[in-house]
Amino acid sequence: MIFAKVAGVSSATVSRVINGSNLVKPVTAERVRRVIADLKFVPYGSATTLKYGRSSTYGLIIPDITNPFFPEFIRSFESILVDHNQDMLMATTDFHPSKMQQTIYRMLVRKVDGIALLAAEIETEPIEAVIHHRVPLVTMDRLLLAPGLSDVAIDYASGMNQAVQHLKQLRHRKIGYIGGSDGPTISDHRVRAFVNAMRSADLEVDPAFIRVGNYRITGGESAMTEVLALRHRPTALLTANDLTAIGALRVIRKNGLSVPKDFSIVGFDDIDLSDIVYPAHYDPLTLARTCRGVLQSAGIVGKES
Amino acid sequence: MIFAKVAGVSSATVSRVINGSNLVKPVTAERVRRVIADLKFVPYGSATTLKYGRSSTYGLIIPDITNPFFPEFIRSFESILVDHNQDMLMATTDFHPSKMQQTIYRMLVRKVDGIALLAAEIETEPIEAVIHHRVPLVTMDRLLLAPGLSDVAIDYASGMNQAVQHLKQLRHRKIGYIGGSDGPTISDHRVRAFVNAMRSADLEVDPAFIRVGNYRITGGESAMTEVLALRHRPTALLTANDLTAIGALRVIRKNGLSVPKDFSIVGFDDIDLSDIVYPAHYDPLTLARTCRGVLQSAGIVGKES
DNA sequence: ATGAAAGCGCTAACAG
DNA sequence: CTGTTAGCGCTTTCAT
Predict the structure, then answer these.
(1) CA-CA distance, B272 to B183, in Å (whole number)?
(2) Which range is the signal sequence, renumbered to this chain (chains A, B) (predicted)?
């Protein structure tokens, strides 16, 4: 180590000083610290990673950073990481399973200490790779568990009940639902929760009022267009997430109708949007707790803190 | 290498196969590939990083991921990185200089191959550290250059001219401006561009119409509150970015006034918000070009592609 | 209280 | 065409 020679010590001593070992004579430590500052010495993280297989880096995989829910999540997630001196490797899948596979591979190469996977694409292959390499993995709303695989699930039942009750109090009876993408994914849970909530509220579910979206604005738009084409329309709509709500809203406005006069729209994320009624389902606290759950499972945050 | 023995070759050969060297007999290569797949072998990136000092990772530092401009930027940035098999280390400063310093340090430890710094906090010390370690650094709108330091600047003059001309055509004469944070930062450029644009349009600049914000919704709100308290009000407002515009909008609505009836508001980022007039200044193309500029300077993208 | 040395996994140079 | 080896920087054990 070239640097150590300048300080007149061995690299071992430098290492000890940097890691705050108390085995170094204060005078020596002080001298080393001064040289570190003078020479702007920065250690090589990769050497430590190589030696110990830990990278102090966590991977975060999200489907779509354009969905305002995710920036808020990222913010909390990163903040917790930073507090623990960990870095965040972030990647977007854009809903492409192949991108997700690449991303996971790259994260394994970088030896991340854990992965939070918020993308719903149910590709089991890359997930198995993660488990095989014993990298803690936390998914969201997949409702699948396995050794090395945790899942943080949202309590849809309660959220949907809140939303439906809220609409019922506003005297809505004909309530529709615009879900997430078709297929055997998360969205099922939400639809089911919606149907159950309607039953609990003694309201009838009209199948024509249940539409499929894609978690994005476009999905909300096309679903709402379908709804407007119906002979009998619902008077209120729940949506799988807030982007879907925004899309629906746009179509409503484009057609000269208005919220809340002609329709009530309830989103499902508590994104910061005015003019719309939200049950605070994913409120900041819940959000932070979710993050904490993710990181607890990954083992970097203790159960209490 | 334990793994290499299973395949009956040396680690060097495995390395050659992985890196696509043509010095390996096809039969051998095939056999190695099969074992790689069977054993789900994933190389240790940190070993390569240690050997060559390159990590194939780029750092992206932003002030506030809650500002919708940044997710859109991140998306483009990451997409270009992924195309080049690079990873993204992302960090938020939340406008805290100390966070920025920590972040940069951590990125140096991780031996990132380049840093894109979109946060405006003008702390020269951490920036000097980056330059000292010869890590390519690209800033945005700092308008400062140095060896190893590039800057991608936005053409405010043109944007402001577009905006002012647009408002003038709508017959506005009393146009105000809500800027970014106070102090000797970027926002200066924008204010100056605004004043110049007004002059070019032969419109008078009323100092009372020029207000300070903070690039966030709250800043737009308080500045707009001040504006509403004025005896003579402007009829149109330009804002430093879109969040500021949203804040102003909120206050306008809260006071029973409306856009565009009582005020015209023009934001400055082209975020996806309806109901508001935007000159497409940071349109997707411009955005991508900006990213490309950032990455070109960092050396991972060629001048033409 | 400090130094010497080994070893983490990879790859380029060299030897065969 | 393939194997051997050195060395990247760090930390820890073992000497001293």
Answers:
(1) 29
(2) none
Locate the chain B residue with the closest alpha carbon to A81: B91
Residue spans in chain B of domains classed CATH 1.10.260.40 = 1-41
Tell me if A243 sits within 8 A of A30, measured CB to CB.
no
- CA-based end-to-end distance of chain B: 39
Q: Please list the residue range(s) of chain B that carry CATH number 3.40.50.2300.
A: 43-152, 156-302
Euclidean distance between CA atoms B72 and B243, whole angstroms:
14
How far B121 CA lies from chain A's nearest CA (Å)? Answer: 19
With beta carbons under 8 A apart, name residues in chain A contacting B89. 57, 87-90
Q: How many CB pairs under 8 A join A and B?
A: 119
Bases on strand D under 7 Å from any protein CB: 1-5, 7-13
How close does chain A come to B149, measured CA to CA in Å? 18
**Burial zone of B278 (CB within 10 Å; 0-12 exposed, 13-18 middle, 19+ buried):** buried
Contacts of B43 (CB under 8 A, 6+ apart): A109, B18
- Token representation of residue A173: 């009876």
Separation of alpha carbons A198 and A209, rounded Å: 12
On chain A, the residues whose CB falls within 8 A of the CB of B45 are: 109-111
Cα A291 from Cα A289, distance rounded (Å):
5
A101-140 pLDDT, tens per residue? 999 999 999 999 888 888 766 678 888 888 899 888 877 7
Range B43-152 has CATH code 3.40.50.2300:
yes
Does A65 contact B74 at a Cβ distance shorter than 8 Å?
yes
pTM of the model: 0.75
A192: left (phi over 0), alpha (psi -120 to 50) or beta: alpha
pLDDT digits (tens, 9 = 90+) for A191-245: 888 888 899 989 888 989 999 888 787 888 899 999 999 988 898 888 887 777 7
Mean pLDDT of B160-181: 82
Query: Which tokens hold the place of A18?
Result: 């940097």
- Shortest Cα distance, chain B CAs vs residue A112, angstroms: 10
Q: Look at A66 and B72 and tell me if their CB atoms are within 8 Å.
A: yes
Q: What is the distance between the alpha carbons of residues A14 and A36, in angstroms, rounded to a whole number?
A: 9
Pick the CATH number of B156-302 from 3.40.1160.10, 3.40.50.2300, 3.40.30.10, 3.30.559.10: 3.40.50.2300
Q: Is the CB of A12 under 7 A from strand C?
A: yes
Superfamily of domain A1-41: lambda repressor-like DNA-binding domains (1.10.260.40)
